[in-house]
Design goal:
Elements (H helix, E strand, L loop, with lengths): L1 H20 L2 H28 L5 E6 L3 E7 L6 E8 L40 E4 L10 E9 L4 E9 L5 E10 L4 E10 L5 E6 L2 E6 L3 E9 L2 E9 L3 E6 L10 E9 L9 E8 L4 E7 L4 E8 L6 E3 L5 E2 L2 E7 L2 H17 L10 E3 L1 H4 L5 H14 L3 E4 L30 H11 L3 E6 L3 E2 L4 H5 L19 E2 L5 H17 L3 E6 L20 H19 L5 E3 L9 H4 L4 E3 L6 H12 L7 E6 L6 H9 L2 E5 L7 H23 L1 E6 L6 E7 L5 E8 L21 E7 L16 E3 H6 L11 E8 L1
Parallel strand pairs: 21-22, 22-23, 23-26, 26-27, 27-28, 28-29, 29-30
Antiparallel strand pairs: 1-2, 2-3, 4-9, 5-6, 6-7, 7-8, 8-19, 8-20, 9-18, 10-17, 11-12, 11-14, 13-16, 14-15, 15-20, 16-17, 24-25, 31-32, 32-33, 33-36, 34-35, 34-36
The structure holds alpha-D-galactopyranose.
Alpha-D-galactopyranose binds next to loops.
Length: 761
């Protein structure tokens, strides 16, 4: 009997306490207390057994190597998280897990799958609301569940919960991607109360852990220094990572994290989850360590200033939380997420990208048709495949000649480009290259025609001065009319100029002035409705142009998340393209995002050699933003050769498995490699960041190869006038076994040097 088991545990627990304390008075007090408790529970238990205790029901959401198991408790009909971890041989063993009752507090130390507020939950809730009658509590009991098999790999489990007293339903949706070992969770809330109902907390996911220690790795950023990594132990209480920047979801904090259980994990060892929220707005990750050393992780939209009113019958859907469990360290977790991103998370993640030349850093706002066609010639000369016209091509009454005017007026500037975009596209195509264009359609400069004609479309506070950032304001994307306008900006441009083959979508400010004329008395909906408005525009664009490549940019990496990346093929990782900084930035992104999505350009930033810059840009989606016409003959030759090399190896970088071998956070160098799925081709990048006099570096053991295959090692990107920077081993052949057990000497000890090796069976 369930409750008899409980009684037994109280006795066991009680014995342990007596032995520890040796205090006869305390012990007597506890004994009496326990006897009373045992009697109470036993009689209650007998009552239940007469009426028939329902059995617990287990719901397993499984991937190839992971199980997430929920339990519908026969005792109270509520849904609990029973297990999350490596796949169990038999989930029925979970019915044997005993529940230890507490002396104080809730009756049992179980983990509510989606904890509510107001009844028996004593810690942070996943959901909180107020009913029409003012009752501030919610109780959720299991009603039913169904399993929707989308295909051989993807299954969605929908678990319906309901308040027994109020017409409120909450559905937990858990989507399992079996081969990728990734789980996606989101929640839908719907009610049938007479009047609208207000929700204050509405998490996408709540997960529980019982480990001895918890190590959180977080990623924090600022402009030019994105994705800095920091690991720390969680201590009792709450740790929150969040964003309140509205449109710039990730400028200061990233919604991606690692949570290592028991011990710190490294690349190949340790149990952990890697999780991230797919939401391009305010987010909150909350980690609460309770008095029993249990950890709850609540992820979702930031409830800050965002209470939301839901109309009867209209479901409220949260964004998705995406996570993977790994029992082999962070490396495996990243590879799982990369595979998931390629197949499901990123637009056209399994396809090709176009190496491009941007004109921005060579011209800024000053260009004419001749200047652009010259840059198109350079694009071709370098072997690149697309020319990108960045900022500065639009605005007539308020021409975009600097960053204080023109945004909002998306008409070609006739002084700079008298023959229009059509001419530019034709010129690019005549050279055998494609044409891409920059836009920033969510914004408006006060010096624009749009600002004058539609003041009610702009976010600004009544009775307050307008707060500018980069001389601009945000449009109100919660307003369907503004959504229509933004869609038409893109659609109009692409339909008039069907040769547009690429869009760079920028967003150069965070949201302040948070007041929408359209939302009237529902201002607290703004942060949420803005992002959903943005998604609805992006969704329409995606429906109409399903394979139009788009780069996501927000002053660099101010908006890098899987909510937006469904609609984008790639993102601009940082405005900072100085390669030493860039190694850390790209390293940080590599934990969550595959190399194919990370745009890295060779630019004039920094004082390192062109080779170093090129090698750094190559470990991702490579492009250029540089005055090619100012290059020396040798630099041009080197770059032409590097682009040719890149075209040969890019498939491995884009679609291969990433192994981070030496971290720049641990040594003065960074070494990583990509291996294709057939394990017959790999590429290794080695960077020496710094070194002391007489310092030596250890050999590096490779990973992910086939031990039985023999591989030829060839250094590439060798400077035209220089000797190979790598080891004498270049040109030799070794077995995968040798390379993975003995390893290679890679790279030079000289500071700021790099080498790239092509490894071929
Ligand atoms: C932002 C982007 C840059 C560039 C400029 C143009 O700063 O991050 O890449 O497009 O805008 O104004």
């Amino acid at each position: 009997m369930f409750f008899s088991n409980q009684s037994l545990y109280i006795c066991v627990n009680y014995k342990i306490k007596i032995n520890r304390k040796y205090n006869p008075f305390q012990a007597m007090k506890k004994l009496l207390f326990s006897i009373i408790l045992i009697c109470t529970i036993s009689s209650f238990s007998m009552g239940l057994s007469q009426t028939g205790q329902l059995p617990d029901v287990f719901i397993t959401v499984g991937t190839l190597n992971t199980d997430l198991v929920y339990k519908v408790s026969g005792r109270d009909g509520k849904l609990y998280q029973s297990y999350l971890g490596s796949k169990l041989l038999n989930t029925s063993t979970l019915s044997k897990v005993s529940i230890i009752p507490l002396y104080y507090g809730p009756p049992v130390a179980e983990h509510l799958a989606y904890a509510t507020f107001g009844t028996d939950n004593l810690f942070e809730p996943a959901i909180r609301m107020t009913h029409n009658d003012g009752n501030p509590s919610l109780e959720l009991k299991y009603v039913s569940h169904n399993i929707e098999k989308q295909d051989a790999n993807v299954t969605i489990t929908h678990i319906l919960l309901k308040d027994p007293e109020y017409p409120v339903e909450v559905t937990l949706n858990i989507k399992a991607f079996s081969a990728e070992d990734v789980i996606e969770q989101w929640v839908e809330i719907v009610h049938k109360e007479a009047k609208p109902l207000t929700i204050y907390n509405y998490a996408s996911s709540m997960l529980h852990f019982d480990a001895s220690k918890y190590w959180l790795t977080q990623f924090h950023s600022k402009w030019g220094e994105e994705m800095k990594m920091k690991e720390s132990e969680l201590t009792s209480g709450i740790k929150i990572i969040d964003s309140k920047l509205g449109a710039w979801a990730t400028m200061y904090q990233s919604p991606g994290f690692f949570l290592s259980l028991n011990e710190k994990s490294d690349e190949n060892n340790g149990e952990l989850i890697a999780g991230t929220l797919a939401w391009s707005g305010n987010f909150q990750l909350l980690f609460e360590l309770d008095e029993k050393n249990s950890l709850r992780v609540i992820s979702g939209i930031n409830p800050f200033a965002s209470e939301y009113t839901i109309q009867p019958g209209k479901p409220f859907k949260t964004p998705s939380f995406i996570f993977t469990f790994s029992n082999h360290g962070k490396g495996l977790a990243s590879r799982n997420l990369h595979r998931w991103a390629a197949n499901y998370g990123l637009m056209d993640g399994t396809k090709e990208r176009l190496p491009l030349l941007n004109m921005w850093e060579s011209t800024v706002y000053e260009f004419d048709e001749k200047r652009l066609t010259d840059i198109m010639d350079d694009t071709k000369k370098l072997g690149l495949e697309l020319f990108l016209i960045d900022d500065g091509w639009f605005g007539n009454k308020y021409p975009r000649n600097n960053d204080s005017s023109g945004i909002g007026d998306w008409q070609v500037n006739t002084a700079k480009l008298p023959n229009g975009l059509g001419y530019q596209i034709k010129e690019a195509n005549n050279r055998g290259i494609k044409f891409g264009i920059w836009i920033e359609p969510e914004m408006v400069n006060p010096r624009s025609e749009l600002y004058k004609s539609h003041p009610d479309w702009i976010l600004k506070l009544p009775n307050r001065p307008e707060h500018y950032f980069r001389n601009q304001l945000m449009l109100d994307l919660s307003n369907p009319k503004v959504q229509e306008f933004v869609f038409n900006v893109v659609d109009g441009m692409v339909t008039t100029n069907p040769g547009i083959a690429y869009i760079k979508w920028d967003c150069n400010r965070m949201m302040t002035n948070p007041y929408s004329v359209y939302l009237k008395d529902k201002q607290s909906h703004l942060y949420i409705d803005y992002v959903n408005g943005l998604y609805s525009v992006l969704d329409r664009i995606h429906q109409k142009y399903p394979h139009l490549p788009m780069m996501l940019c927000a002053s660099g990496g101010g908006r890098v998340d899987y909510g937006a990346l469904r609609y984008f093929t790639e993102f601009w990782a940082s405005d900072n393209s100085e390669p030493l900084s860039r190694i850390y930035i790209q390293w940080g992104y590599s934990y969550f995002f595959p190399a194919i999505s990370v745009c890295n350009h060779v630019t004039a930033w920094g004082k390192t050699s062109l080779k170093f810059k090129t090698d750094v840009a190559m470990m991702g989606n490579m492009g250029y933003d540089l005055r090619i016409n100012k290059m020396t003959e040798n630099d041009l030759k080197f770059s032409q050769n590097a682009v040719a090399n890149y075209k040969r190896i890019r498939d491995v970088i884009w679609h291969g498995d990433l192994y981070r071998l030496i971290s720049p956070y641990e040594e003065h160098r960074a070494v990583l490699m990509y291996v294709n799925s057939e394990k017959n081709k790999a590429v290794l990048f080695a960077y020496t960041l710094n070194s002391r006099l007489f310092e030596t570096f250890n050999r590096v053991r490779l990973q992910g190869l086939d031990p039985d295959k023999t591989y030829k090692i060839q250094e590439i990107n060798v400077p035209v006038d220089g000797a190979p920077s790598g080891p004498s081993e270049s040109g030799k052949s070794y077995t995968g076994d040798y390379l993975m057990k003995i390893g290679l000497n890679v790279g030079s000890v000289s500071p700021v040097t790099s080498s790239v090796f092509e490894i071929t069976e």
